[in-house]
């Protein structure tokens, strides 16, 4: 059983042990607070058409009770943000974004066929991630019907009498859930879940995402890159749309690397000093890096020229050496773990964490 204090006025970087928090997520369960996210409810017969102004990825064919990941692209064809879109019913959607700026212009598109309501200030978003996340929620009083909730689906539920909506998402590369609940119930539900899952902060979340090869909007999207260069074309919309046509040539590719480093690169931010974009041949512009719990060394993401590929990349900012490209994603290359089913003891069958050491 895990207990922790909770500061309702701050979203913590960590709870004192970043590696321990990340290890708990890989081996058991970790509890995160994602209440910083912006959340919009878009409702009415024109809801699908309005969302089409946010992203070219279709939502008119999204079934109720399902979630879709999508990219937002600017007029130059560059990715400016990512979204998750939850369909509640035929004419009602909720859109989640990492920053309010990505969706701030939607309100101006409101009209007689569609309404837009900002819910961020009314909402708390907690997340339980890890192989023990289903066990955690069942211990907190939720029904085992959660076992049947499929990947990128959501359902209504109640925790300790608090109505909430639970989505099955795996942003750490693990099986897990996001819980959307009233803001004034955040501390109560946090304390309840923290009895069964270890509280974790943003440093651990970002470390886990780097290992899983997921972009960090504040890092990878600082640079002008297309969906194709991120290898995320399938989330950007139809390949024949105007943004794809504006980017006929792939300049760079996002890659994962292992390296040596003389500093502790947890929550390391990209450096623009001494680096040009796109990088020169043989160089990598490092965008994210961490001290990986899986490798024990530095693991990161960055951009290199797409063609030609050059063995032995060098860091344009000079912080990493002996760079070796590895599979992207490094953790669970087939991305089967977050999609997997739950077995009888409420934990998924999986490889031991120690097999990565």
- Our estimate of the beta-strand percent is 25-35%
Q: How are strands sequenced across the largest beta sheet? A: 8-9-10-7-1-11
Helix content: 10-25%
What structural class do helix, strand and pairing data support?
A: alpha+beta
Distance between the termini: 26 Å
Instruction: Tell me which CATH architecture of the largest domain applies here.
Output: 2-Layer Sandwich
Could you describe the largest sheet, including whether it forms a barrel?
6 strands, mixed
Q: State Rg.
A: 20 Å
**Strand count:** 16
User: Low-confidence segments, ≥5 residues, pLDDT <50?
Assistant: 1-9, 240-245, 348-357
> H/E series, N to C?
HEEHEEEEEHEEEHEHHEEEEE
Provide the CATH topology of the largest domain. Gyrase A, domain 2
Number of helices: 6
Number of domains: 2
> CATH homologous superfamily of the largest domain, by name?
Probable tRNA modification gtpase trme, domain 1
Overall pLDDT score: 86
Assigned CATH class of the largest domain: Alpha Beta
In one word, what is the shape? Answer: globular
């Amino acid at each position: 059983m895990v207990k922790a204090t909770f500061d309702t006025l701050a979203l913590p970087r960590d709870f004192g042990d970043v590696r321990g928090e990340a290890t708990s997520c890989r081996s058991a369960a970790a509890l995160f607070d994602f209440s910083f996210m912006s959340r919009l409810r878009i409702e009415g017969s024109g809801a699908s058409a309005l969302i089409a102004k946010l992203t070219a990825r279709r939502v008119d064919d999204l079934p109720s009770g399902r979630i879709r990941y999508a990219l937002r692209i600017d007029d130059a064809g560059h990715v400016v943000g990512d979204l998750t879109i939850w369909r509640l019913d035929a004419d009602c959607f909720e859109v989640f974004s990492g920053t309010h700026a990505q969706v701030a212009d939607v309100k101006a598109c409101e009209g007689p066929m569609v309404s837009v309501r900002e819910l961020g200030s009314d909402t708390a978003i907690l997340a339980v991630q890890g192989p023990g996340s289903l066990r955690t929620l069942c211990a907190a009083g939720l029904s085992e019907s959660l076992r049947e909730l499929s990947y990128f689906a959501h359902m209504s539920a109640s925790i300790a009498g608090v109505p909430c909506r639970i989505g099955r998402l795996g942003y750490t590369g693990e099986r897990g859930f996001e819980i959307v609940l009233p803001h004034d119930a955040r501390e109560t539900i946090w304390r309840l879940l923290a009895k069964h899952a270890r509280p974790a902060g943003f440093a651990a979340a970002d470390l886990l995402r780097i290992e899983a090869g997921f972009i960090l909007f504040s890092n990878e999207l600082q640079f002008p890159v297309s969906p194709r260069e991120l290898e995320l074309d399938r989330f950007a919309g139809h390949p024949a749309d105007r943004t794809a046509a504006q980017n006929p040539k792939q300049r760079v590719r996002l890659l994962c690397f292992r390296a040596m480093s003389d500093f502790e690169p947890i929550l390391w931010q990209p450096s623009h000093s001494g680096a040009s974009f796109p990088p020169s041949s043989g160089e990598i512009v490092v965008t994210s890096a961490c001290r990986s719990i899986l490798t024990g060394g530095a693991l990161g993401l960055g951009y290199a020229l797409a063609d030609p590929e050059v063995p032995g990349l060098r860091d344009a900012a000079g912080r990493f050496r002996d760079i070796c490209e590895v599979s992207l994603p490094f953790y669970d290359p087939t991305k089967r773990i977050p999609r997997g089913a739950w077995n009888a003891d409420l934990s998924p069958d999986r490889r031991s964490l120690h097999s990565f050491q």
